[in-house]
Specification:
heterodimer; B: 79% helix; globular
Chain lengths: 67, 240
Amino acid sequence: MNFLRAAGREVLGLFVNDWVQSGVIIVILAAGWFAVSKLGAPALVLLVLLLAGQVVWFARAEAKRSV
Amino acid sequence: MGQQLFIFGAAFLGSAVESTEALTIVLAVGLTRGWREPLLGTVLAIVLLAALVLAFGQLIVTTIPEWALKLLVGALLLLFGLRWLHKAVLRSAGVVAMHDEDRAYQETVNQLGVAVTRRDWVGFILALKGVFLEGLEVVFIVIAVGGPGHAWTAAIAGGVAASVVVAAAGVAVRRPLARVPENTLKYAVGILLTSLGTFWAAEGMGASWPGDFLSIFALAAVFLLSSRLAVTLIRRPSLA
């Protein structure tokens, strides 16, 4: 049972480090999907910039928290 | 050909990192308590992991429509890759201590008792659990990079080659591979998987990338730049 619980935690931990960050990434993907369906390829620029921007944002947030 | 090489490289590097961590556990158990049971546990874990690759690989390719597969695997790959990239950025900036295989080895050894002469279930279970749990990441990487692009051979070859190389190195040196630049590897793999995830997720949404697969290199450049910017903004004196 412990083994299964550890495996479950491990699988979840593959994708989620910080629930807020994971939520933001999913929201960005959902917004990107909507934008791509309306605007086509130009929306990809927005999608990539938002994903790249959250890398900087969450790194700064965690650095501030750990001071 | 370029796509196959990229997928082989991503699977190889990602699997090498996880195989190094699994090797540390097996070495700690084997050198402390004897080799028979830890090796049996390792073999059983590898068999279970191979079964997972075959079962899930076959299942997702035959039952999920291609656009949904790209969107789902792309989103999961993005979450997975960004998690590695986030950790690598924090370690590179000195906010979090680097992963240390020597320390991980010593911690595992400290949890273990002395060598045993009879059947050693503790050694068996520790090796099985360690290799299986670390191997789950290898399984995910192989399925995720090989599935949507129909590049199973390259992905599986990358994963197997990495495991064989790391195991051979472990047999040769008989101690943890502390010199493997784990954070640099995780940084590189984080960027590769994040780029691949973005590429496939957007294709699943119905978008076409300019330059098709070549646009992954542009995506990698964008994520590299943003992560270096993050490191520059939060850099601290390095931690031990």
